[in-house]
Specification:
Length: 293
C-alpha cells in the first residue's frame, strides 16, 4: 500500500461542527494552544450556521463561548461540551456534546507538530438539531405544522429519505389552504381579473392537495411559474407518488425537490408583494409632489 493510500482523511474543526451529522466518527485536525504541561486548548473557529429565529438572518456567524480542553494523558475517550453564540443575537446559541478520543499517533497519520493534532471525534448530540434549517420563507407557510417542518428538515439532513418525504407531504397537505391563499393574494396584484383566482378559491374546499390541484384548469401568471411550469403541478406530481414505489434515495431526492419548489414559490410571492409595496410608495411620493406644484 502506498503512502497516499495509507493516509488518513482529516476534516477541519469547522467542517466537523457544521457539516458532519451526529453519530459519525471523524478524524478532526485541530490547532492547539499549550497552556500547561500535558494540557492544551483547541483553537475553536468562528462558524456559520443556519438559524431559525425572528431576529436573525437564515444563516449567521457564531463565536465560541467556552473552551475545549484536552489532556495529553487521556488514554480513554472523554465527553466534552462546547457552546457558540450568534454574533447578531446573543441569546441564540448552539451547543455540542462531543466524544473526543486520544490523539492519533504519527504513524496513524496524526500530529507531526506539538501545536497541531488529529483527534477522532464523534458528535453525541447538538442543540438545535443538525440540519440546514428551515429559513424564514418556509416558516411563512408552516403555521401549526412548524414542528413537522423541522422534523422534515432534520430527516433530510440525516439522509432519511422516506421519513423526510412523508413529513414534507404532510406539511403540504395540511397547509394547502394557506398556500392557495398566498397565490390568490399574489395573483390579485399582477392579474386581478384572472380566472385562476376563482378556481383557487374553489380549490380551497378540497380535502386533498392533489384533488384540489386537479380542479384548477387555468394557468398561473408567468411571474409565478418555475422553469415555465406551475409550482402547483410540480408539487402535485411529487405528492402523487406512493411511498412504497420508491427507494429511500429516491424519496430523499423528492423531499429535496418539494422543499426547493416551496421555497422558490414563496420567494416569488414575496417578490410580487415587495414590488407592489415599492410601486405604491413611489406613486404616493409622486402624488404628494404633484400636489405641491
Amino acid at each position: 500500500m502506498t503512502n497516499e493510500e495509507n493516509k488518513i482523511r482529516l476534516v477541519t474543526m469547522t467542517e466537523f461542527l457544521v457539516d458532519v451529522p451526529p453519530g459519525l466518527r471523524q478524524n478532526v485536525a485541530v490547532s492547539l494552544k499549550n497552556l500547561a504541561s500535558g494540557f492544551s486548548e483547541v483553537d475553536l473557529p468562528k462558524i456559520k450556521l443556519p438559524v431559525d429565529h425572528e431576529h436573525c438572518n437564515d444563516t449567521e456567524f457564531f463565536l465560541p463561548i467556552n473552551k475545549l480542553g484536552i489532556f495529553s494523558s487521556d488514554s480513554e475517550p472523554t465527553t466534552k461540551m462546547i457552546s457558540f453564540r450568534c454574533v447578531s443575537w446573543s441569546s441564540v446559541q448552539k451547543h455540542y456534546v462531543i466524544l473526543v478520543e486520544p490523539a492519533l499517533s504519527v504513524e496513524d497519520g496524526g500530529s507531526v507538530s506539538p501545536m497541531a493534532a488529529a483527534h477522532p471525534m464523534t458528535k453525541v448530540g447538538e442543540l438545535p438539531s443538525f440540519g440546514p434549517g428551515i429559513g424564514k420563507r418556509l416558516q411563512k407557510i408552516a403555521g401549526d405544522d412548524l414542528n413537522l417542518l423541522r422534523k422534515a428538515d432534520r430527516c433530510q439532513a440525516l439522509g432519511l429519505g422516506i421519513a423526510a418525504f412523508a413529513y414534507y407531504r404532510r406539511v403540504v397537505e395540511d397547509r394547502r389552504v394557506k398556500l392557495f391563499n398566498m397565490l390568490i393574494q399574489a395573483i390579485k396584484v399582477v392579474s386581478p381579473s384572472d380566472d385562476v383566482i376563482s378556481e383557487l378559491e374553489a380549490a380551497k374546499s378540497g380535502q386533498r392537495f392533489a384533488a384540489s390541484v386537479d380542479t384548477i384548469k387555468s394557468s398561473l401568471p408567468d411571474s409565478l411559474l418555475i422553469n415555465g411550469q406551475s409550482p402547483l403541478k410540480l408539487l402535485h406530481g411529487a405528492l402523487s407518488v406512493g411511498l412504497h414505489e420508491l427507494s429511500d434515495d429516491e424519496c430523499l431526492e423528492l423531499a429535496s425537490d418539494i422543499r426547493s419548489v416551496l421555497t422558490e414559490l414563496i420567494e416569488r410571492v414575496d417578490q410580487i408583494a415587495t414590488n407592489n409595496t415599492e410601486v405604491k410608495k413611489a406613486a404616493q411620493n409622486l402624488s404628494k409632489l404633484m400636489r405641491r406644484t
